Every structure is written in C-alpha cells, then in structure tokens.
Amino acid sequence: MSDTGIKIKEKYEQLGENPETYLEGLLHAKPINYWDYVQVDTLLSLQKPRTDFKDETIFIMYHQVTELLLKMMRHELEQIVDEEKITETFLLTKLGRVNRYTTMLITSFDIMKDGMDYDDYNQFRKALAPASGFQSAQFRYIEILCTSLGNLVNDEGKKRLPSEATVEDYFEQIYWKDAGLNRKTGKKTLTMEQFEEKYLESLMAWAKKVQGRTVEDRVLELKNPSVELTEKLREFDRLYNIEWPLVHLRTAEHYLNSKGENKAATGGSEWKKYLHPKYQQRKFFPLLWTENEKKHWGETADLK
C-alpha cells in the first residue's frame, strides 16, 4: 500500500470508520467540475430585478460582488480574532489581504458611477425603497471584528453614554444609528426598523463574543510592533474608514445631486452627512493616529 493509502486508512480508523467504505465511495463518485464546484448556475440565477430597466441588473450584481468582497474580508479578520497565539507575520499577511480587498471595493465604485444610465438609475431606484446599502450586516460585523464598540461612537454619542456603558448602551449610541433615527423624537425610519429587527440581536451577541479579542485588541498584545505593521494598520483604517466612504459619497453625489436636485436616499438617510467620514468619525485603531489627525478625520478629502 502506498504512503497515501496508509494515511487514508489511518485517518478513517482513527475516526472509528471502515476505510474500505470510503474508498469504495470514491470509486463511484463523479469527478468534480468547475461549474458545480463554484456553483456557477446558482450564482448567475441570483439577479432578480424589480423593473425592466437593464441597468438594474448591473446594480444588483455590483452589490452582490461587494457582499462577496466583504465576506472575504470577514474570512481574514475572523482568523485574526480566533488565532490562538498572534504573531506579527500572521497579522501582516492577513492585513495585506484585507487591504487588497478594500482597494477593490474602492476602485470598483466606477462600475456604479460610470456603468449605469443616469436617468434609468433615478427611475428604477424608486422601486427599491426602503432597501438601502445601509442594511448590509456584513459591514457592521466587520466593524465589530476590527475595534472596540467605543470607537464606533462619534463625539456626540460619547456625550450620551453612561459612565459604565454596556454593549446595549454602545449600540444605542453607535454612529450608524444617526442614519435612521431622529434622536430628538426617537422616531426611526422603516429602513432602520427592518435592519434592527433582523440583525440587531445577532450584532450585539457578536460584539459580546469578540469583546477583548478584536483586531485592535490582538495588535495590542504585541510588544513593539514594527513600522511595517503600523503602516499596514493605518492603511486599512484610511482605506476602509475614509477613502471607501468618500467614493461612495461621490457616487451618491453624482446620481442624487449632480443636477442640483438633492434627491433623497432610498433608505431616507441624510446621505451627505451620514456618508462623510468626518461625521461618522469611525476609526479602528485610534492609538495609531495623532490628535490632530483624529480631529480632522476625513476633512482634507471633501467633495470637489
């Protein structure tokens, strides 16, 4: 018996299974092919436009690609959170991948900005309310993986936090609630209500699970991190929390206000304010930025 055959035999014997059963199953199994392995037919059947405008299909596929990129990011970030003994080499590898994925998110926005007919978009978008990219749960999971909840509360929100804030308190003041909650009246948009009904409980559970083990926490476990690692972390913070929101904002500006109409977002948010990083004030690694950089977060990259 070959070395491989011996290893296969040992593997299934250790599991208390009969190796011959599995080998016979392999004998009868069909060879794998590309379309079944990647689930191509299923993937290409997932576009379900609500109107007859051709570019709505582009809109759907773009957001599906974005969700896949976010899943790739989660895949790497979860490994950082779960790694038993963190090392700088491990972090550099994972952060290098995450930064490449984030760069793809940024550059791919050209598909949205230049890849759809302006008038058609402004018609079919009306059929999508109250759905909004705001409702992407993966975006929120990534934030929670990366940093402590206190870093997801802007300056105004911090003023409203109790001295001994709980996870629930942080979620009451978290920056993204400003997109769909009138803090004076307590009234929420339907977009916000839908999102919280589906995801809020799981997001809070996720935050409790990773508390003390976020990417920010794991980095702090290292003594004297290198300049290379520090720059990789700053690059991720800048790409994800400044450049990506800004290219999103510029695309929204193109479709919603390039002719001075100042149209409302499908989710009902004050998109000009909500999308800008200087209002979100989201920073994953605040200790890596100077006080002046934090004070002027995103301000040097205003819309032209």
TrEMBL record:
Superkingdom, taxonomy of origin: Bacteria
SUPFAM superfamilies for this protein: Indolic compounds 2,3-dioxygenase-like (SSF140959)
A Pfam family recorded for this sequence: Trp_dioxygenase
Entry-linked InterPro entries: Trp/Indoleamine_2_3_dOase-like, Trp_2_3_dOase
Designated name of the protein: Tryptophan 2,3-dioxygenase
Species annotation: Zobellia uliginosa
Lineage, highest ranks first: Bacteria, Pseudomonadati, Bacteroidota, Flavobacteriia, Flavobacteriales
